[in-house]
């Protein structure tokens, strides 16, 4: 009886691009390490300068204070996005859109979620039939008034507890105002139906840890950039320039609003950056805290990818104007 032998198919040729990518990481690390050894004396002299010591102090302080809140916020927002079914929101919201907007906005106070999680959650709500105005109100309020954000604000401003109330009021009013504006002026052809999220095709455990890994790397990178910018502004900017900028309330408010858009900080960590900007008034720093979680560079990209560019080009500038106006009015009254 003849026997047949199975031959193992040859292994596929390795991808040269993948091999190059695997080798580039260790090579880059070794190169940087060698440069650090060769340049240790100039680096030691530069780091011993008073400006660099001040920069390092501010940077490390912001990072140490913000990281625990960032990690906790990412864990809770991933749990909300994965384990709370979107149908829960559809059942809990009133049927009348005008009433659903403030209810959805207030829901952000009890459902932690950072900006990275609020956009896909809002997309899931719209996809399941929730009125877009309510979904947008939740999108803006969840990263701004949840318990983690308010607690981090209280820790960052121990001498100004009124900042917590001002942030809560201004952010909730802005979220509701944008929801009601969409009810009155929004058009269905501006809002592209969101596509299905990739996390919805995974198991809950895989989706949870995938969301945590993504948000920690994404938000952590922006936190580092924000801490570096705050340290640079604190240590390197001329004192007279900062005083002149801060002495003009309209200019100071506008400057920090634009800075919030550019830095794209995670809302769980932005209060510590704002607290380090001591040259500016509480109202200007409140504007920084209200604008940042609602519109920044990464949020604009995420909103355009989820709801379409036509939506983002209209929604983002309007949100910026409304947030600046309401935070300024709230700060004038409460701070």
TrEMBL record:
TM segment ranges: 24-43, 55-84, 133-157, 164-183, 216-233, 245-265, 311-334
UniProtKB keywords: Cell membrane, Membrane, Transmembrane, Transmembrane helix
Membrane topology according to the record: Multi-pass membrane protein
Any Pfam family matching the protein: ArsP_1
GO CC terms, sorted: plasma membrane
Region feature Disordered, mapped onto this chain: 1-21
Cellular localisation: Cell membrane
UniProt record similarity statement: Belongs to the UPF0718 family.
Protein name: Permease
Species for this entry: Streptomyces cupreus
